[in-house]
Amino acid sequence: GIQVEQSPPDLILQEGANSTLRCNFSDSVNNLQWFHQNPWGQLINLFYIPSGTKQNGRLSATTVATERYSLLYISSSQTTDSGVYFCAVHTGGFKTIFGAGTRLFVKA
Amino acid sequence: ETGVTQTPRHLVMGMTNKKSLKCEQHLGHNAMYWYKQSAKKPLELMFVYSLEERVENNSVPSRFSPECPNSSHLFLHLHTLQPEDSALYLCASSQDQRGEQFFGPGTRLTVL
């Protein structure tokens, strides 16, 4: 089946720094989502982005479907950005495959 | 209520108990999902219902039994669970198979 790999697995940033998280997938997908999981376990939708670039405040995402990767950019990071970031790809039918996540810690 | 809600938020049960998890979506979607998130593992898709019909069942043990009485409600009935079934169980909904998925807050289950 399709493989989804996220990098880096862990990331520590100083508040105010920028970062790029990557999601690689091994086959073509119908769409892709980015989520932020907060410390209480809630998955928060960040982007629904099968291709192209989207921006929402300090966050932006780019998916290059032909090259099978997506990037999540976080600018001017804040302590509230801490948590785990997941990408999830939707393949045929209703199948959804999550990556293992990037655990981010932003220091004050 | 808005979005996707789940009850209970926390559940502790013995291996011989029977319990049920409930999920309700207020988004008008027609597909609902159950996921399992174990420690140190990615989210795993368990079941999918589309228009109240089960369309995905990812080799989940029979001690987990889903039920979807209508497009707004989804249940996961639990019986004779094992300690390794302790996990965060997340419910999601979407509009059709390509729609954006929205998640509930999860039920944290501990099996003693």
Description:
The complex is a heterodimer of chains A (108) and B (112). Chain A is 0% helix and 58% strand. With 108 residues, chain A is mainly beta. In chain A, strands 2, 4, 5, 9, 10 and 11 form a 6-stranded mixed beta sheet that branches. In chain A, strands 1-3-8-7-6 form a 5-stranded antiparallel beta sheet, with no helix packed on it. Chain B is globular and about 35 Å long. Chain B is mostly beta strands. Chain B has strands spanning 4-7, 10-13, 18-25, 31-37, 44-50, 53-57, 64-70, 73-79, 87-94, 102-103, 107-111. Chain B contains no helices and 11 strands. The A-B interface holds A 4, 30-31, 33, 35, 40-43, 45, 48, 86, 88, 90, 93-101 and B 31, 33, 37, 41-45, 48, 50, 55-56, 88, 90, 97-98, 100-103, 105-106, 108.
Helix fraction of chain A, binned, reads under 10%
Rg of chain A over CA atoms, rounded to whole Å, is 13 Å
Order of SSEs of chain A: EEEEEEEEEEE
Biggest interface, CB < 8 A: A-B, 23 and 23 residues
Which overall shape of chain A is indicated by the principal axes computed on the Cα atoms? globular
Helix content of chain B: under 10%
Can you write the helix and strand succession of chain B as a string?
Answer: EEEEEEEEEEE
% residues in beta strands of chain B: over 45%
Rg of chain B is 13 Å
Hey, roughly how much beta strand do the residues of chain A contain? over 45%
Mean pLDDT of chain B: 93
Please tally the β strands of chain A and state the result: 11
Major β-sheet of chain B, in short?
Answer: 7 strands, mixed
For the sheet with most strands of chain A, the description reads:
6 strands, mixed
What structural category characterises the helix and strand content of chain A? mainly beta
**Total beta strands of chain B:** 11
Q: Overall mean pLDDT score of chain A?
A: 95
Oligomer: heterodimer
| Number of discrete helical segments of chain B | 0
SSE class of chain B: mainly beta
